Each structure stands twice: as C-alpha cells, then as structure tokens.
Model the fold of this input.
Amino acid sequence: MQNNYRIGIYGISGSGKSTLIKNLCEESSRFQSFEGSKIMEKILNDDISNFKLLDADEKYKTRVDVINYIKNELDDNMYTIVDGHYSFIKNNSDFEIAITKEDLEFYTHIFHLDISDEIIKQQQLNDKSKQRNFSIEEIRKWKEHEKVGLQEICKHNNISFYNLTSHDLNIDYIHEVINKENLLNDLNRHIDNSTVKKYLLFDADYTIVNFDTGKDYMYKSLNIDLVDVKSCFKKDGYCFSSFFKLAKLHSKIDDDIFVNTMYKEASKIEIETDFLNLLKTYSSEYNICIVTAGFRILWQEVLKKYNLENIKVFGGNNLNIDNYIIDNNLKGYIASYLRKNDNQVISFGDSLLDKDMLINSNKGFFVIREKERNDVISELRNHQHIKYLSIHSLDTKDLVKTNFTEIIEELN
Done:
C-alpha cells in the first residue's frame, strides 16, 4: 500500500464512534483500529477513573502517551483509525480541550460525527455502561463546539476534515474519500513521470474489445453468479456504493486464485485490430491510459502481450488487491483533473459508465456496437465535442458520425 492514512473519528459521547469504527473494520481488513480509552487503561494500570484525578499537565501527558503508544503499534500496510475526543463538557457548560499538539501532528484525516441531538441523547441513554445525563441543549452546544473547533484546527494543521451528518453517516463514504485520494495520488505520480501533455483515455470492455471480460471470462472461471453481480447495482445503479459492493464480492475470492485467474484469462483476450493500431501508433505521442472499472491486472497482462507495458491502467475492483476501485464518477474525475493540469484529453467509451469521461474530455468518441444506446446518447447529444464511432451498422442522428480514418487525422 502506498498511502498511510491515519484517521481520527471524532464526535461527542454517544455519537456512535465505536459502532462506525467496528463496521469499518468488519467491511475491510485494511483497517487497524485503536480505542483510546482502552490504551489509557493500560497506561493507568487498568483504572481509567484515575485520569479524572490528574491535574491538567498530567492529563495532557497521558493523552500524549496514548498517541505515542498508537504510533509504536502502527502497521504501515494498513489504514489506521482511532476514536478521538476534541473536548469534554463541564458542569457549567464550559469545555475542557482534550486534543493535543501530538494528535494534530499524527492525523491525516478527521471525520466528525454531526449526528442529530435527539439521536445522540437516545444513544447516551441506551449505553448503560456510562452515566451520561446531558440535556438536549448541552448536547447541541457541545456538538457545535466540537465541529467549529475541529474545522479550525484541521484547516491550520493540514488535516483533511469531513463533517458526517445523520444522512450521510455510513462506512461507504469514508471508503469513498480514501478511494478517491488513492486514485489521485496514483494519477499525480503518473503525471509527474511524463512530459507529454496529450492523453488518450480508453475504456476497456466493449470499447477496445467486443465483450465483457467479467461476464464472458472472469466470472465463469471464478464461478461467480451473474445474479450476484447484478444485485450489487440493483438498488443504487452506477455509484460508488454499488461498485464498492461489487469489490467486496470479488474480495471474497482467495487473492491468489483471483490473481491467477486474471493471468489465465488475459491470455485469451485479443484487442480489436483498429483499436490496437491506435494504441501502438500513438503510444509515444500521447500518454495512453486504460480507464476501467474492470480487472486491473488482467488488462495489464493483455497490454504486456502486445509489448504495450508503457500504457497506464487506471483500474481496480478488488479491495484486497487494488489500491482503489474505479466507478463512473472517478472516470469523469480523471478526465477533468488532467484537463485542469493543461493537458489535451481525448477519450473513448461505450456506456453510461463513460459518460462523464467523454463529457469532461476535450474530445470524446462514443463507441456504438450491437445495441441501441439511447440512454447514453441522450446524455451526450448536447456536447458538440463528442462524436460517435459505429463499429458495425447502428447509427444515430443525435451525434456526428466518425470513423477510424477521421480519428487518425484528428490525432495527427
């Protein structure tokens, strides 16, 4: 793993920090969690009640000892997640600040749980292990004090801050934030290693080949039922949450079996001649990238067969093997990010997954094969920089038609 995230989950007592951390760790083996109070018990010889008896300097030192303990236990190959306290409320509605300078030097991200006052009150009452009898007004003041204070100190300490409300409190959101940053880091490394300012972005399945490598190859070899694959998208359609569900489905397969299957199936994949010619002809003039929600290693191996290892694959759909997973939003993000960095971007795609990538490019070529794609065309028809490339005989009046000869002229 190339990204060592140190994440603090903050919120007043009863916000649900422990539950969120527990769910995150159950969803992904990449998280290692630390509970501050448990560590403090060790430091104080298993009697955390002694902490209240300490003076301010001793309390501060103990809190620093907690974060130093965590530092010594870190696994650089995992994401670290810790439950944190910014402050504690006193009887007179004043606040004792609990966060330390060492905490601020430690965290890369802080997520604040901005849950409704009533839910926090009920969760405090439900937790019989602690005596917490705060009024709704005290909860409101405490929560606002935490949010404003955390926003300010994160801003001044280069910590990414996210405020999670009752509506968007879910583990997928935290995964999505990390996923996008992992992609961005990879994207920046790729940009930094090149002096070429022109990019060709290609979708993979049904674009440079006339089939789906998942449905037609991988799932058959792995005995994955297509019903289970489709169920990942049944509720929310194309969005990160759905692709995350698919990645979790893939991640249930033994890693070695999954990787070896990609190697095996890659040997059967042949890129269509016209697209292969584009990849070979322009691999020195353009930065060529495959941008796929499909199988990263499979496509890397396919390219290797054609001596095209210099083509970058932005892809991923397995939480154990890939550093990030690609969804429709990230496809569009890659195109727009490259353009913001003064690059010329030309993209090829065939589906709704590629819509934003095509729209956000300087030029886009929409690939039409055997199926009518009015769902996609209706989204593209008002964008004059997008043309369609009909591989067989299907046509549309809503986009300007092109062919490989004209595309080559444009690329030259």
The two ends are 39 Å apart (CA to CA). The chain has 17 helices and 14 strands. The chain has a mean pLDDT of 91. The longest helix spans residues 171-192.
